[in-house]
Design a protein that fits this description.
Elements lengths: L3 E5 L2 E5 L14 H18 L1 H19 L4 H32 L5 H28 L1 H12 L1
Antiparallel strand pairs: 1-2
The structure holds adenosine-5'-triphosphate (ATP).
The site of adenosine-5'-triphosphate has 12 residues, from helix 3 and helix 4.
Length: 150
Amino acid sequence: MPTQSSKRDGKVLPFKSSNRDLAWHIAPSVFGSLRYAWMGISYAFQTQRNFRIHTIVGSIAIGLGIWLQLPAVELTVIGITIGLVLAMELLNTAIEAVVDLTVKQNYHELAKIAKDCAAAAVLISAFAALGVAGCLILPKLAIVVLSVLG
Ligand SMILES: Nc1ncnc2c1ncn2[C@@H]1O[C@H](COP(=O)(O)OP(=O)(O)OP(=O)(O)O)[C@@H](O)[C@H]1O
């Protein structure tokens, strides 16, 4: 049953709620979608060094936050920031794959722009995460370390 319409070459085309005719395969259920998402995380962890580093550093940050008994709001901010960095890493990996699929091993200025901008998005989110850790974790960690030392 047509629910919306799209414009192509000036013509209004009706389309169904799931207009995925070009897809090779469509996840049959919510459980199927979750399984494919997990496969994406697993692929990124196995193949992307930066994704592994960010996962480990993020886990340490969450662990430190819990150990330092940070308030729930601060732990939430740290969690959201780590989630943002990991999500950016996954999008960067997806963009790299689509670019490589499109241009193969040929040089293309637009491929360069796509990859450089995707990498920049990861970098900016990582800097934001550093800033959050510097504001919320470092001062309290310094107090604990200094009190232990002296
Ligand atoms: N097909 C291409 N055409 C033009 N420049 C490219 C192309 N492929 C890669 N590059 C350039 O090489 C850089 C590194 O490419 P690569 O595929 O390793 O991306 P990356 O973001 O550095 O990878 P990773 O996130 O895994 O470290 C890109 O940022 C881009 O500047």
